[in-house]
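Our working data are protein records whose layout never changes between entries. Instead of coordinates, the fold is spelled out as a row of discrete tokens. Here is such a record, shown just as it appears in the course material:
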Amino acid sequence: MYAILCVASDSSVIHTVSLVLRSRGYICISAESSEEAILAISGSGADLVVLDHAMPGSEKLAADLKKLRNVPLIMLAGLSDVLPTMPFVDLLCPKPVNAHEILREVDSFLSRKREATGD
């Protein structure tokens, strides 16, 4: 099964996203700070990252995570957030999180990975 790193400074965001992803059988690794996220991505076999834009330093963290482990990165962002171009982000997903949408996007990224690697 695939492992997903969920990164947010708000534990309720991690809880909500993890609950949705676990319902599909994904393994969720959580991090509530940039430091925890760097340690988690370095020491895990994360196949995808979900990162909350509201987390302080999220744009730099997205770049750092992508450099450490080149996996798909989904950024959660509020509809009112003004976002710069972020080349390290594969998809912007609106908050509040829609369970069906996030599952569809995660499934899509990971099915492409499965096809490419033969997993």
Observations:
- Helices lie at 11-22, 34-43, 58-68, 99-117.
- Residues 80 and 94 are 10 Å apart (CA to CA).
